[in-house]
Amino acid sequence: MKSQSTPTNPSPNQLENPPLPRKRVTLSDVANHVGVGLMTVSRALRKPEMVSEPLRGKILHAVDELGYVRNRVASGLASGTAKVVPIIIPSLLHSVYVPFLQGVYSVLAQHGYQIILGTTEYLVSVEEQLVEAMLGWYPDGLLLSGVDHSARTVAVLRRARIPIVEIMDLSDAPMDINVGFSHYRVGVEAAEYFCRKGYTQIAYAGTLTEIDPRSVKCIAGFQKTLKEYGHRSDLIHRSNEPFSIALGGRLLNDLLEKHPTIEAIFFGNDDLAAGALFECQRRGIKVPEQLAIMGFNDQEISRSTIPAITSVWTPRLETGQLAAQMLVEELHGRALAARRVDLGFKIIQRESTNRVRNNVHFSGTGGGTARGTKS
Amino acid sequence: MKSQSTPTNPSPNQLENPPLPRKRVTLSDVANHVGVGLMTVSRALRKPEMVSEPLRGKILHAVDELGYVRNRVASGLASGTAKVVPIIIPSLLHSVYVPFLQGVYSVLAQHGYQIILGTTEYLVSVEEQLVEAMLGWYPDGLLLSGVDHSARTVAVLRRARIPIVEIMDLSDAPMDINVGFSHYRVGVEAAEYFCRKGYTQIAYAGTLTEIDPRSVKCIAGFQKTLKEYGHRSDLIHRSNEPFSIALGGRLLNDLLEKHPTIEAIFFGNDDLAAGALFECQRRGIKVPEQLAIMGFNDQEISRSTIPAITSVWTPRLETGQLAAQMLVEELHGRALAARRVDLGFKIIQRESTNRVRNNVHFSGTGGGTARGTKS
DNA sequence: AGGAGACATGATAGCGCTATCTTCGATTTT
DNA sequence: AAAATCGAAGATAGCGCTATCATGTCTCCT
Fold first, then answer.
1. B174-231 pLDDT tens trace
2. What is the mean pLDDT of chain B?
3. What is the torsional sign of CA B286, B289, B295, B298?
């Protein structure tokens, strides 16, 4: 505090800070620029009708001019909700899960929610971590795949006191909201389908059957039904490689090698079924005359092969959309008609299971069983 | 302020709030519970080595007991970064873009970043909105698809002063970091491939060719090369429907109807190529003897059909991973060896373009040109 | 023994916004 | 014309955390 404003110093750099390290533009920057209080700016942006016309115009103009972007983090803190919804799916590598994501995204994005993505790679431990991490965003709701979670996950979610939506599979005792279809019933109806057609040597071939609870349930329904019909139910072939067309061919070969008398195979996914079909073509096995093939998920490939492959259509996109819609309703405080919705599935019959030669109708013409129970 | 604490009121409901609406557990709840300052708890969670062993133990225990979850929103506000990285892709409906997302997700998740997802549906206007909305998270970086953006998008991004990564296509003048491969070169090399094999009636069939700048560039390279070889370059067939196997068949039919002399077709995606192949089988057109077919993106289906389809392998997963890795490096302040990386592509020759009967080698055996320029 | 560090912990000031309450003037009512 | 009413704008207090500085030990060295 001694030498007062040393005038000996000749540097006139009072204006040497033109390249000022431009900071973030904040609400009050805009407010100052227009000459109003910052609340007015905040209102003009969120509830325009509460601000007089002329002011609003000036404010919006200033926002544009200064390039102001509302800080959603600060906004989230202040308002207690960041409008964030996590969605946790098993994997992005398997195309089957993407439509769920797409459905959820399309609806939530429209309502201004930000989705944050997590994949478990089928590991409950990862799911557990993800859930905890995502709860740190203090999300408005949370979407989970499947209905089988670790006790800790369930406990943590309950404590969060937010709407939880379990999608894909159905549970008898859902945590909260539940949308999807019963994988167990798929197994049952696939088996019934073959049984009714008179097949007796009926097999299942799939992947990740150990770690994916949905496969487990599907197989359970499949086996139970075969037993009820008095057929053998041990023709279950598993692999732990990821789904792929090529794998379908290998599964087929393995299965036929061990059990050459097999008449019909239900595959855990359409790509497997298609791979098996291609392999049949290579080996000269006639489909459906010598072997019937059914896929799962009704992906486009099953519609396009020659012969086209019978498959189980599943409401993937629809599940995602409805789940998101229900969540939005709930968040807006509107009562839900049902908290558990069975969107059903449908067996789409095509040539690959039509013993009697009949190479007609491509798209979902027939024989399917529709389900749509709501509870 | 008149009647002081009306003792006439007999209601003894001083304790009527036992079902207290449990609030969020905060840092200071934990701190109070342990009997320390809240900074100590904050440190114990983020920089454990700065807190003494015994205290740390007690704190972690209390965290667990109370079910404390760090509020990332508050944390983000206070620290100025929420560890968030948006990624904007064209669409989730088309499976081609998912591997990019998967690559990015896997790397960023590992580094504790939260990705937030946006899809443009090929509309620059949507991209513009998305970018602005996402900037509201004050992200650490931002990943964009393609290199063609509106002027406003570019301006807004520049002002954000964060690392931007453009993926998929390459630009001569990237905004910042750029990883991918040249779609123009794909067009060039696909055309060269056919020309060298002696084809002269060479067509292109694709989708979204108007609105997807990558298709546009690919076609440009394709046409230019055909012209250089002295062949006609007007056999370009477009559709605006989304990619699908079925569409491939229709494109094929349209093309053959107008130009029955076509010898070779380059399809904008593998599913189209597969659909065309299936249609050829239906119509009795022999592939490759009567018609050569090449796909794009080397998806699994092209490996599995009979004959297998020649396709252009593209580094989708790799691009996503590298882009994310480079972003992480940049964010950690480490210098990048290159800010623009060409990951190349590769023509995988299979039977669908082998005029001389030769049904051998499945996976990437031959003829391909590898590229890997880095700049 | 005395002071410089080194280390562990606490106190405090925001980050940028929204909820809420207050103020102020203009309009309406009788 | 005075009181009641209403709409528009401002002032203020946090939201839950982190950065930073201040404090208070406990060594370690000369």
1. 999 999 999 999 999 999 999 999 999 999 999 988 889 999 999 999 999 999 999 9
2. 89
3. positive
A310-313/A346-348 β-pairing: antiparallel
pLDDT (0 to 100) of residue A23: 74
Question: Which nucleotide's C1' sits nearest to the alpha carbon of B79?
Answer: D18
Task: Tell me which nucleotides of strand C come within 7 A of a protein CB.
Answer: 8-12, 14-20
Rounded to a whole number, what is the distance in angstroms from the first to the last CA of chain A?
Answer: 79
Q: Cα–Cα distances in Å, from A127 out to A91, A108, A123, A148, B136? A: 11, 22, 6, 10, 28
Nearest chain B Cα distance for residue A303, angstroms: 8
User: In angstroms, how far apart are the furthest CA atoms of chain A?
Assistant: 106
A202-233 residue pLDDT tens = 999 999 888 899 999 999 999 999 999 999 99
Residues with Cβ within 8 Å of A98's Cβ and at least 6 positions away in sequence, in order, are A92, B92, B95, B98
Among candidates A71, A156, A244 on the partner chain, residue whose Cβ is nearest the Cβ of B138: A71
What's chain A's length in residues? 375
Q: How far apart are CA A174 and CA B51, in angstroms?
A: 42
Dist. CA B170–CA A40, nearest whole Å: 44
Q: How far apart are the first and last CA of chain B?
A: 78
**Strand D proximal residues, B:38-67, Cβ < 7 Å:** 38-39, 42, 45-46
pLDDT value at B17 more than 50: no
**Minimal CA separation from A318 to chain B, in Å:** 13
Kindly give the pairing relationship between strand A236-239 and strand A264-267: unpaired
Helices (runs of H) and strands (runs of E) counted in chain A: 13, 12
B129-186 pLDDT, tens digit each? 999 999 999 999 999 999 999 999 999 999 999 999 999 999 999 999 999 999 999 9
Between strands B346-348 and B310-313, the pairing is: antiparallel
Contacting residues for A367 by C-beta, under 8 A, at least 6 apart: A193, A347, A349
Q: How confident is the model at residue B356 (pLDDT cuts 50, 70, 90)?
A: low
Nearest nucleotide to B75 by CA–C1' distance? D17
Amino acid at A58: K
* C20 nearest neighbour residue (CA to C1'): A39
CA of A309 vs chain B CAs: smallest distance (Å): 14
CB-based contact A59:A34 (threshold 8 Å): yes
Query: How far, in Å, CA of B73 to CA of A114, rounded?
Result: 13
B243-260 pLDDT, tens digit per residue, is 999 999 999 999 999 999
Distance from CA of A264 to the nearest CA of B (A): 22
Residues B108-120: what's their mean pLDDT? 95
Per-residue flag: A72 CB under 7 A of strand D: no
Spanning CA of A27 to C1' of D12, the rounded length in angstroms is: 16
Instruction: Taking each helix axis as running N to C, give the angle between helix A245-258 and helix A270-283, from 0 to 180 degrees, rounded to the nearest 10.
Output: 60
Question: With contacts defined as CB-CB under 8 Å, which chain B residues touch A109?
Answer: 118
Which residue in B245, B252, B291, B270 sits closest to B347, CA to CA?
B270
Give the pLDDT of residue A209: 83
Residues 45-104 of A with CB within 7 A of strand C: 45-46, 68, 70-71, 74-75, 77-79
| Distance of alpha carbon A361 from alpha carbon A292, whole angstroms | 17
Global pTM value: 0.89
Beta carbon pairs, A and B, within 8 Å:
112
Cβ of residue A27 lies below 7 Å from strand C: yes
- pLDDT at B24 (0 to 100): 85
The closest of A208, A196, A242, A185 to A373, measured between CA atoms, is A185
Q: Write the Ramachandran bin of A191: left for phi over 0, alpha for psi from -120 to 50, otherwise beta.
A: alpha
Which residue from B minimizes the CA distance to A66? B159
Residues of chain A with pLDDT under 70: 1-22, 356-375
